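Q: Could you fold this chain for me?
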Amino acid sequence: MTAENMSVPAAELMIVGHFDKAPGYATRRPAGSPSWLMLWTQAGEGQVEQAGAAFTVRAGDLAVLGAGAPQRYRVAPGAASWRFWWVHFQPRPSWAAWLAPHALATDCHLVEGVPGDVRDRVDLA
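A: Sure. Below is the predicted structure, expressed as structure tokens.
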């Protein structure tokens, strides 16, 4: 399944979902999204592209993508699947300092290898 120009929720909404996708799944938003997007990987691997950055996410990784920039994400080539939570949201201004050390590009962040005890708590939430 591929989603070209996939619709996104209104910027003022926060919406959450969970996907367990097989190879072939991809989402591409040439105009980006009016909201920010978090992708929390539980299992498998995904490939994410935004703002000139391209990276692979694995279990325990959190990708945070800013609004208004073209984005693409998919099951990583060679991966059997990608199980992840997604959240469209508007960040609080104070979060910028938390995200800054994880910036790969403007408004594109990767928090790699979240510790196991924290991952367990997130997965149970």
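A (continued): The beta strands are 2-4, 15-21, 26-29, 36-50, 53-58, 62-65, 71-75, 82-89, 103-105, 108-111.
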